[in-house]
Structures are given as C-alpha cells and as structure tokens.
C-alpha cells in the first residue's frame, strides 16, 4: 500500500487520532517527525520565505517606496515558476504583462539588433535580480530575450491584472496612510474601562443554563440588587484549560473582547476568577443560536441568509480594521439579540495580527478550515472570508459544502476546491453561487474581500443589490428572524441542559492573574 503524502501531512498538522490502522506487509523503515517540531519548521520556513520575498520586492525601484503592508500584500500574491535550462522566459518583441524576480538560478539576457541574425548576450542575472517590472504598469513590449541557464531557474512572478486587483494605481497607494491599525489599537485599549465594574461575582444569581461544553458552561445570571439586569456568564474550567494548553487562547479571547465595541459583536463587560474557574461576564443575547434555528428549519431563504451574512460582514469589517482575525465562524457562534440582530460570540481562536503578518496555528472547525490552514502555509484575514462563503452555503442548504465522517476526509474535500461542489443539487441561486465561489477561492489573495476594494467588494456584490447597509448599521432594518423574548430573564430560545454535577479540581498556577 502506498501512503498518500497529503494524508500524513494533515495528520502532522491536526491533533486528531488516526481513524484507520496501517500494518506493515513487508519490512519497512519509518521516519518519525513530532507534530510540534514539524509545525515549527513549517512556520519558520514560511516566515523566512515571506521575508525573502519582501526583501526582493524592496530592491525593485518601482516598488521600494511602498510601505511594508502593501509589499506584504504583493509578496503573498507572488507565484513560483520553474524554467528548465534553455527555456525562453521572455522573447524579444513579444508583449508581456508579467513581472519576474529570480529566487534561484541564473538567466541570460540577449538582444538582437536591427539587421543582425544572431543574438548578443547583454548580461547575466542571478538570485535577487528582476526583470519585466514595467509590465505591471502597462502593456510592455519586451526589448530583450531572457533565457534560463543550467540547471534551470526558479522565478517569483506577478501578472499585471493580479497587481491591479490587489493594489490598484501605484501612485494612489503611495499616498495612502496605513497607520489605521496602530491608531485603532490605541483607541481600543482605552475602551477596556469596565462598564459594570461595581458588579462582583457574588452579586450574580444563576437563572438558567444557555450552553455547555468541555470547557464549562454559559449561565444566564441576574444582578441580585437589580433582577432585571441580566448577563451571560461564561464559566471556564481552569484545569481543563491548562490540560489542553489553551491559556493563551483564553487570555487572547478576554483581551480582544474587552477591546471591542460593535453592535455586531457580543460585549464582554468584565471578568472574574477563583480557584476552579475563570469567568467572563457577557452581554445576554436571548434570541438563541442561529444554529438552533437552522437545525429546526432545515435551511434559510436568500433574504434571511443575506441578513445574517451582512451582520457577520459588519463584525469582520470592525475586527479586520483593527488587525484582528476571527477564525471560528460557524452558526453555533452566532447569537440573536432581542431584535433579531446577529452578534459574533466565542473569540477563543481570534488573534491580533496587523496588516502584514501571518500566523501558523492550526485551528477552527474542520468544515470551515481554509486550504492554507490545512497546508500550513501561514494565514491571515483571508481565512475569515473563506469561512463566510462556507457559512452562506450552510445557511442556504442546511449543510456546509465540505463534510465527511472524519476530519481528515473533510480536509481532503476542502483541498479539492469549491468548484467540485454541485450547487444545483441544493437549489442555490446563481448569484449566491457566484459570491460563495469568489469567497472560497483556493488562493487567499484572489478571494473577494482580499483585493484592493477590501470588504466593500463583498458589499457591492450583485447578491447584496438593494440591501440597506445603512439601515443594518443603524439597526432600523427589520430582522427576518423575530424570536419571542418575553423578559431579560427568558431563556426559552435555548435548549434545555442538565445541571452541572461535576466539580472541577482547584488550579493555582496563576496563569489567569489578569482576570
């Protein structure tokens, strides 16, 4: 039996148990690589490759005045092409729209003067050299030929259309101010002043349970001194967090949620801790989970899906403008408030990145994981736009497009691409299909939302034609799902859960001192 490399590659990335057994039928020699070591190698290699590409771009006079954020965008769009020895990369007199940077090997530049039959060698270009940069600006008539030398040459390439889609007019980019993230982060840090800082943990009384999981529970609680004032109290078992090495994720969740002030993101008011739990005092969204309503209805129509998707887009626009990626979009993490508006919850996988950074952590729900996460290429906000396309499909059909009984098989389906999905079988409209496919492009820089128009490109898509974005932001647009919330203490829109009989052990390593 031949082991598929991709199969094993993905098991190196995700901490999943094998669902099959492999037995040796002959004597075999097996090389073993620890998953964490493999991930560290991939991360360092990816970071080095990104830095090399940035350094290459900075050496090009046409691009060297651009800031690092713009250069990182270009670096991410570069494609690797190999040319064997003797191959013509460029022919004199041909028109061209591709820019080349030599990443390894050498090329020979030749030119035939008028009246000559033979080509004269002009120069040799090596690693770090570039050619064809004017093709990024306009149709370029090549004035010389470029030929790969032995044993071949590897080039980083970028075509003019991709450059324009990503960057637009280069003079406009040079004039842009990219200090937004820094300014917004300074502003958001000042927002951590706690609105309900007078409330203590002992002042809260549990009314009902809103959700349970391996981490702990979410309880609907009321402020004893004012019973009409209710919250959702997220109770996380400290020992479980330590056992699963999730301390950093929990700290990040608290920090990011404390800094967010958006009507499309669930508010975190303050946090507590004791020997057994850390607690997050959250806004109570009593309309229930989108997932529960989807489960009961089977699927949503375009009108409802459009509204939910638009709420998520507004949340993403807020987060991405502050250099935050979400990484855990799914119906279970979308709650409705009493007006039927959707709010993003559960920021355990969210991370602050900034414009020009990437991260290599393998995380997310299998059906929603983007290809670059599976392949450990490093990822950024583009994974959120991929997940947005997956969410649209699940809302319209009742199921995500890529699903299998085993996470590894799901990852294999994802790597086959969105074009393998039969949309007609699920009666997904052509316009919605078009948007999903643009959001779920295999190459992150080609996804709608990742190009020069940013997230506005998604809002302008034909599927959203006529949608009242201003009304959504002002919350004057009627929500398509109207849940009956009778009072601030009403938990009827959530499933019933058993009481918690499990008493976790104490945990006193003090990792949660900031709570």
Automatic annotation (TrEMBL):
It comes from the Eukaryota. ATP binds at residue 234. This is cGMP-dependent protein kinase. Residues 204-464 form the Protein kinase domain. Residues 24-59, 62-184 form the Cyclic nucleotide-binding domain. Its EC number is 2.7.11.12. Residues 465-515 form the AGC-kinase C-terminal domain. Residues 485-515 are annotated as: Disordered. It is an enzyme of class 2 (transferase). The keyword Transferase applies. One of its GO terms (cellular component) is cytoplasm. One of its GO terms (molecular function) is cGMP-dependent protein kinase activity. It catalyses: L-seryl-[protein] + ATP = O-phospho-L-seryl-[protein] + ADP + H(+); L-threonyl-[protein] + ATP = O-phospho-L-threonyl-[protein] + ADP + H(+). Residues 485-494 have a biased composition (Polar residues). Belongs to the protein kinase superfamily. AGC Ser/Thr protein kinase family. cGMP subfamily. Keywords: ATP-binding, cGMP, cGMP-binding, Kinase, Nucleotide-binding, Serine/threonine-protein kinase, Transferase.
